[in-house]
Fold this sequence. Notes:
This protein has helices at 2-18, 25-31, 86-101, 117-127, 139-145, 173-183; strands spanning 49-50, 53-54, 56-58, 64-66, 75-81, 105-111, 133-134, 152-156, 167-168. It is α/β, with parallel strands linked by helices. The chain has one domain: Glutaredoxin (3-Layer(aba) Sandwich). The protein has a five-stranded mixed β-sheet, sandwiched between helices. β3 (56-58) and β4 (64-66) form a beta hairpin.
Amino acid sequence: MKRLIIIILCALMLLALSVTERSTPEKDAAASEELPPLSGEPMSDFPETVGDLSFNTLTVDGREIRAGVIREYDLVIINCWADWCGPCVGELPALARIHREYPNVLIIGLLCNPTGIENVKAIMQAKGVSYPVVEPAGSLIDLVKRFDAIPATVFFDSTGHEIANPIVGARSYAAWKTIVEDLLP
């Protein structure tokens, strides 16, 4: 009987491994999208400070991003998350979908104590995340320190001013869509 149970458990584990999310051409294309700005200006032409935001940092894949890029978007969503946080990782596909469907909304993933950048990159690819993800720098460090729990999300307008109460906790795609629609001008 024990042998049968072990065989069944092994078969279930193999089945689970075979149905995990795999890379697809669509996901690979999304992951290679160019970082904003929409205008095509070089990132070096953007200021490091806009309103309450001040940063010049690199994304986890080595692309430069400065606070000034937010001027080109109607809404900026900064989502604090970690690769070890189940709810954080769970909401990434919803945020990735919002990123694809709303070109006038900039999402920036802000890492909080990641276990490793390679793990973060693997999760981003598996979840279809193509928006910029950065480690805290400049005013983003203070943003992370505001929260005792993650995921936590803060909303800014194109002038760098916070425009809504932060949200703590994961949200579904439907909830994110409602939030975005409510905050867009």
